[in-house]
User: Fold this.
Amino acid sequence: MSHDLCSPTIHRHSLKELDQIKRDVQNYRLKGQYIAGHEYVCGLPESVRRLKTIAIETTQMYLVQGHYRRAVEACDFAHKTLFLNEDQNEPSPETLDADSICLELLSAYVAISRWCKVKSALRISQRVYDVWLSRKPWYKEPGLADSPTTNSLAESHADITANNPSLVHPATNIERDGETIFSESEILIELYYHKIRVVASEQSLLDEAIAKKAAADRLNLLCAWCIKQHRVREARLLIYFHVGLLNNTEADENMLKGFLEVLAGTHNPVEKAQTHLDLANCLLACANKNEEAIDFHIDQSERLFTNENHGYGLLDLQDLVLQRRRDSLTQEELLKKKLVIAENYFEAQCYQQGIKCLLFSFQASLDMGSLHNQTQENLQRLELELAKVGGEMLKMGSYMYGVSHALLRAPEYGYALKSLERYVESLPTEIPPKYHGLLVQVLAKAYLSLGNAAEAVARAKESLKIFLSSESYIDKSDAAYVAAFITMTCARKALPMSAVKRSLFKDATETLELWADLDRENDYPDGECEKCLILASEDYSFGFSTDSGAIERGKEWSARAKQCRTSSAVTKLHPSIVQVEIAEYLSKNQYKNALDRAMELFEACRNQPNILPFELGQCSLRVSIILSTCATRLLTIHGENSAELQDILGLLEASLGKAWEAFMHYYADGGSEIIVACANYIGRLILCIRDHQPSRGDDLLKAFLPLLQRVEQYCDSIRRSSVSTHNFHSLLEKRDIVSNSSHRELYSYAVRACLLLCDPSAAWMWTQKGKARALSAHFGVRALLPEALLKAIRSDTVSQQLYEEDRLSSESLLRATPDGYISAARRAETARMQMKSKPLLAQVLEIREGAFNIGFEASSLDLALAVTKTERQAVKYIDWFVNGEKIVLMVRELDGTTHSKNLSITTHEVDDWVEMAFNHVDEAEPRLKGQDGKGFLSKLNKLVDGLAGLTNEDDLLILSPSGPLSKVPLHGLRVEGRTLIDRNLVIYSSSAAVFRQCQSRAMSQATMPYSISQRAVFLGVYEVPEFPAERAAIYGSMEKLGKQLHGEAKCGSEVTKRVFQDYSEKSRWLHFHGHAVYVEQDIVKTGLILSNGDRMTDSSSYGSSDEIAEKDIAVPEIFEFDMTHNAPHYSIIACNSGTQDNGPGDEPLGLISALLYAGASSVLGCLWPTPSPAGRSFSDKFYASLKRQMEDRTDTPDLYVLNLATALRHAVRTMSEETQQPFFWAPFVLHGAWFHIVHKDMPCKG
Assistant:
């Protein structure tokens, strides 16, 4: 008996009520309705959520969703650990009920995903076997003699369906004394017991074949028993885990077919849909594909998922169809499909059916056309008039209008934000609450536009607080509405099912409900109506994909809004009212009524004088959505081969026409991100049409293709609006912008399209467009323009004049006052547009903005190849494109020839490897340091599959890893039995644009005059009292290396922050050996440990080296350095000095990116905490190689061209011969240029 039955909660809730709650949560999980399911769970009393049976269901719902934080939280509500450690005595019998055991296993299984605690989970599973399973007479580990075959379920399904007990697998394993009383928790115990063991086996903790065979055999027994008892939902859960377990496609196919027959005649539509989908996937994996059968299962699955409004089933189905057609798709088709999928996922994050006032109010032009010019001219004239009369209040009002207008134009988001930040910092002391509140409110909208959700919500709340101090109730209510709206919008953009999303939604909903009631009490019907409408819209958006309860709530809010309408200024054709009414019609499948209402609003808007194009776009899009919804519904009802097909396609064509019309309205008068959403919607419609009329669809796609480039330029303009400065905060702003998921997906879809079209060259270029855009653009602030380019500009009078105008406008922008900032930014943008029309100046812009022009790169790189005596064909860019769990390798030659290869390793495997390699328990030996470290590293060799045939030995490889690969020592992986760095020269770079900057800096040193102050310096800081011998060894090493490279050494108390910066900004070569701090949770706290200037003694205490102190140097401070004139090489022999935080869009942030941005041409660092002796050994070998290069040189008498990649290769190769463990030889990585130019005459000090 479950101890839940003894709970006081049972006395407040009947068993029937609790059973209904349990079934409700199961249904949310089954239908993929996670948003509604989460709301439902959050609405349950805490006492109910603490019940084990409820916790089991909620945990499983979150687990299936993949939200492990919530899964852990749900578990923790009811879970009390039974097995604290291996030595713990057996738990008391009264605690060993089925629910407790189930929750223990479930918690352990969740912990695998949450914290990779595979060993702990395995230990717990063994304890469960010892104290529970092994003592049950009806359980024994399946053996070969009495276990069913993998085909047994398929062979016996017909008889099981007919309730023939003779074909149920041996009763001794399932039944107790002939009574079938197997509870749900007991089934789940076995399921998660075997799941844990299978995962453990895949991590080499158990024999994989035995563990999977045991799991498959036991699950067959359980599944057969469940089917006999008509418990198909549990059977489906077991089958889902079973499919693919033994990698036997034929057996899986037979099992699934058998289960489909079991389901025949039952009302289990979701189980049927999922089984059809699994069968389609299974058949697709067969060597001899049965296309007719695949079509059948796809159609059945789509029909069932559609009928059930399944939360994600159709998305999975679209992925399957895309995979099936990938070899035959054109680039246009692929882009369209990916946009459709992206839009649908976006809607799953609560963006469907949501018409948001802020988003749809953006009114501007993407180009610099007449409307924008007229607006700018009017604002400038107004500024002149206000300057004459000196009206600060009016000026403030004008400023708010101007900055609000800029915020409506997406390419000016960054300008508006910068202006507002400066303006709010210097507000007049006596500023009235309304202006103060509005300014802060506009600032909140600026943060929202640029993707900074935390600041947007904080500023919205600050604005509400300011308004609450005012005397106007309407201002308070409106501020509450705006605050709630911004919070709701941020919630929609948060990670699905995250705690942040839940908290934001709750906050917004409670605010709207509270102030709607207050509006009624204070007789403010307009405010009450608007709040009810947004609540109704939210509930309807939930209801379309989740539960009817949301629909009912939506109806209540809608009815309340209509009641307000009779006494408010909100008219019958108010867009928000109409939108909610349309949503209500659609929820009832009353498509004609919805269409008539939308057309009524469309005609009314079109007949209005001076109607804004944006509003027309809204109306057109609304009509288009209803037309497409009708067409989709009719297709479901009548089928694709019906006589009505041509009429249905006519509806789709009409929908497409309205959608295209909407897009043109938005593009003409709207610079907001609705353009991206509308483009996605157009892609979806074209895809639907092409499914039925391929030729027509192809024509439509050809017209749709140019849209991709236009939207990409739009996204780029938003990034560019955040003006790059020397300020570290500027980089963080750009990182926020490029982390916008819809913008990143744009590049991802383009790459996928090119790859599917067998155009890897274009795919590589799109990859470079999307990589490290914030960092490469930030590099432009300190970009070195090639002397040949500057000479060509000076020889062209027009180009030289525009170049000077751009310089002056840029300087004016940096000096602009807050209220003049936007105008200055617009002048700078106008100058930029003029420069863009001149080929020479267009190259300047590309360099400044981090763009990658392959034609320009080739000529620029030739100089570096010449001085290093490197053949063009010996240089290869190596990229990895990450697409979900899939990884594609791309190899690019300098002549443009590009190859791609789909790798057989997944990002999940890489993530698991990184987790095991670097997130080990304190004091535990790192995996790369163990005896099997070499074998452990070899698990990732698949990441370099294909390089043997696509590159040659001794080629220079420029590695540009993506996503989780940035933490992998790729150079240590093996190609044809040899490590990559043994086979090739290897360097790393975040992107080709960053690499271009670095090699240009390195080349610049050839023409720079040499000064004695620029000689090499070796810095050693190891002020750890416990290790005086190692400290002495390090300092001795610095002295020795200084002599080898004709430099000087600074050690211990000599290496202060001031000294470090001074040498960084004047020396051409710097070497640092000491401690670094890497804080993964807050990368800005990463830095190098330096001295405070006091002499070190054995009894000195310098505190912890685990955090940055005032005496040390942190990443943001390094960004402020200016090393562009000396462009040094930097070697940082310190723990994690080469580790970087790779944000969305592969944006790196860490010591390496900070030093490169500051001006270094190359940086050598360590990927993980490296023992100091190993660091000294590496340095000895690295500099020994450089010394030999200097001795053997035959180049320019006054210069040494040092090949850093060769020296790195020699050092690592030698170390790997001395020790097999990669932990010691694999952490060293070189970023930037592969060479460094130094002058011969660099005498040692003294």
Summary: The longest helix spans residues 694-721. The two ends are 87 Å apart (CA to CA). DSSP finds 54 helices and 20 strands in the chain. Residues 281 and 1073 are 54 Å apart (CA to CA).
